[in-house]
Amino acid sequence: MPRQAVIVFARYPEPGAVKSRLARGVGAAKASEIYEQLLRYAFGVLDDFQRLCPQTTIEVSLATADRVHDFRRRFAVPWPVVPQGEGHLGKRMAEAFERLFARGFSRVVLMGSDVCDMCAQDLSAAFRLLQSHEAVLGPARDGGFYAIGLRRPCPEIFSFSTWGSADVFQRTQHTLSRLGLSLAVLPLRTDIDRPEDLRLLERHWAFRNSLAVVVPTIGGLQSLTPWLEDLRRILWPGDTVCIVQGTTALASQEPIRTGDVIRVQSPLGRGLQLNAGARACPGEVLWFLHHDCSPGFCAAYHVRQICRDPGAALGVFRLGFSPTNRALRAVARWANWRTSLFRLPYGDQGFFCRRETFDAVGGFRAPYIMEDVDFVRACRRLGRLWVAPDVLLTSPRRYLSQGIFKTSLRNHITLFGHFLGVSNAVLYRRYYGLSHGPLGGTHALRQAHANHEIFHS
Questions:
Q1: Disulfide engineering: 287 pairs with which of 179, 323, 352, 401, CB 3.0-4.6 Å?
Q2: Closest to 105 (Cα-Cα) out of 1, 2, 8
Q3: Quick one: signal sequence residues (predicted)?
Q4: Which CATH class is domain 4-203?
Q5: What does the longest C-alpha to C-alpha distance in the chain come to?
Q6: With a threshold of 0.70, does the pTM exceed it?
Q7: How far apart (Å, rounded) are the C-alpha atoms in residues 23 and 76?
Q8: Are 319 and 349 in contact (CB under 8 A)?
Q9: Count of C-beta atoms within a 10 Å radius of residue 347
């Protein structure tokens, strides 16, 4: 099978270094944020495409060579990040094609990173058309192109020194025709260069709503700092994280916001904490995440996809464990099978939904335990359960410390008790081995939570 590759041309998003025309209208800082959103959207499209064509090599080509390390740390992409060459844009594109063809690739597509309506099917179509054509172009509304695909080096089409004009597509099309190369054209798409282009983002499912991540915990914010830093690497500009600290104190503090993190206190009980977090944070898409989970680099893109399908009421990820073994893989397979067959995931699969769905079902109605199961059953009455293609890795600490069979058995006994109508407080006491109610025995309660931090499948 012919070897094929995608190159995405990108810049490191910082004020004054990206989107100069857009910055003249909205300011350099805002333009940088918008470009980062577009860049993360492009990575989501590439992730979707690689699931369709897993044999395709993907490479990020960065315009600023001295920011390659910073770029890798900030975006955590799983693909190689390499610096572009020197010179004008055409020279850099020509060198990128020549380098990959020299490595033995027979079909190469180069794409931009500022297009708001490109999709994985555009890339699939590009490679399909390259089977019967020598070149492929994706025209942009401003007169340029958002993608170009070739089957061999063609330096002539990149020899021009100017690339910001409205005749770039026609010029390239004419040059290919003059060289006698057959050309196929992809659908027309829109890159975001001017303030008037922002109207499109306001209507787009990926850009119009910000994301709020709600994280329940019994620990302090300081203990979550490393995990929060990893989480920030996958979030988009404008997203927020709400840490909800469970407490047995009768008085609670007002929400405290520091940058993109909001800290909230709530009565102890995961359902109570999740509700408090949803009330305290902005964002029209809510993502309820446990802090022993590790989302993939495109998780925020996949969470946003719940807005793409009005018939989907609730979204979840597939479950995985890290580290793992044969028995834990069996637990994860059962959980994912149960999710597909019975539409009954658990909270450690990272629930996400539109805020209107959360409000319509009354939030999490079970205050202490089984809040996830109750929430899923309520959401299913409003629409479908959508399972994201990504795996959400979670810690197996409790399984390994208490025994996989014993832990799984206790989980399912608690589930059946919930279905039989056993009160939430009784299930809570039995699950955590407490002699007092959910708000009694502070030391014992916190110790129980430390031993059974997250309710797994």
A1: 352
A2: 2
A3: none
A4: alpha beta
A5: 84
A6: yes
A7: 26
A8: yes
A9: 26
